[in-house]
Amino acid sequence: MADKPTFTTWTILKILDWTKQYFAEKGVENPRLDAEVLLCAVLQCQRIKLYVDFERPLTADELATYKGYVQRRAQHEPLAYILGEKAFMRNNFKVTEATLVPRPETELLVESVTIAAKKMKPEGEVKILDIGTGSGAIIVSLLDYLPKAKGVGVDISVDALIIAKENAEQIGVKERCGFVRSDLFERIPADKKFDIIVSNPPYIPAADIATLAKDVQKEPITALDGGKDGLDFYRRIIAEAQSHMEEEGLLAFEVGIHQCDVVAQLCKDAGFVATAIRKDYADIGRMVFAVKGQRRENEYEDLLLEITKY
Ligand code: SAM
Ligand code: GLN
């Protein structure tokens, strides 16, 4: 009698082991974790549940959806694009291929700006401009933490702005946040002034783009390319920022590796009275703050110390 054909029953355990191996061969950075996260998205469960149900077989539909996700991830599509969202501060932000995936370092920028806003305007009515808003991660989080603040997010990408607006609505700050398609300040009215201007502009030197991790190269080039030395956007923003800032305003940047001192100097050269740098958890100078202030430099020490001391 001929042997019966055997079919593999794909249980949770088996498929995770298989995917881990497959991702590792494809050079995916966290093969096991990504396999688990994608499977959770298919099964709509928490990761702990996978471990409780290791022997649970997958249905044909679950298997088909999972396979689609695995193929995309094996081609280095960022996990956040496959899942359609990324956790940032205390919310989940919708993301698409039109938006940069918000980074953990940028959470530190939001933290510093939140502290600055509370110190600068204890009554809370602070006006904030976010240049290159992408998914809206920065401005939407700031308005979420500062219930009386008002904000504007600008971006050159209409597709990114659509997502930013959706996030503002979802997170409940839409009434206090405008979104404008603009090349930096181009469409911000000349007489419109802000207390804080914040930006995480594209800052990767053009020649370095090809050397970035494959995942990062799937993100929009307009979100990454900072020109020859990576500093194009800082030069342009710094040149125009003060005319859009209140007298005691703060400019707050995220910067790339080795850029903090140069960007702080650019701010000083443009007439900003005081500057400070904050490092990220990898000890890289990651944020530059500059005060437009009308008083002497040392009168801003307290504020700058407070927002960079961590
Ligand atoms: N703020 C988001 C974040 O931190 O996750 C996105 C930052 S991403 C590094 C830079 C953003 O700047 C992108 O969304 C890109 O579309 C936008 N951008 C690029 N050139 C621009 C320009 N000339 N004017 C306005 N925005 C621009
Ligand atoms: N932080 C991004 C990276 O690690 C770059 C984003 C930017 O250019 N602002 O590649």
Strand order of the largest sheet: 5-4-3-6-7-9-8
* Helicity range: 40-55%
Low-confidence stretches: none
Helix and strand succession?
A: HHHHHEEHEHEHEEHHHEHEEH
Tertiary shape = elongated
Taking the sheet with the most strands, its summary is: 7 strands, mixed
Give the terminus-to-terminus CA distance.
74 Å
Strand content: 15-25%
| Number of strand elements | 9
Ligand inventory reads: S-adenosylmethionine, glutamine
Q: How many distinct helices?
A: 13
Structure classification: alpha/beta
Mean of all residue-level pLDDT scores: 96
Radius of gyration: 23 Å
Can you lay out the helices and strands and say which pair or pack?
Elements: H1 12-25, H2 31-43, H3 47-52, H4 60-74, H5 79-83, E1 85-88, E2 91-94, H6 104-120, E3 127-131, H7 137-145, E4 150-155, H8 158-171, E5 177-181, E6 194-199, H9 214-217, H10 221-224, H11 232-241, E7 245-254, H12 260-269, E8 274-279, E9 285-291, H13 301-308
Parallel strand pairs: 3-4, 3-6, 4-5, 6-7
Antiparallel strand pairs: 1-2, 7-9, 8-9
Bound molecules: S-adenosylmethionine and glutamine.
The site of glutamine has 8 residues, from loops.
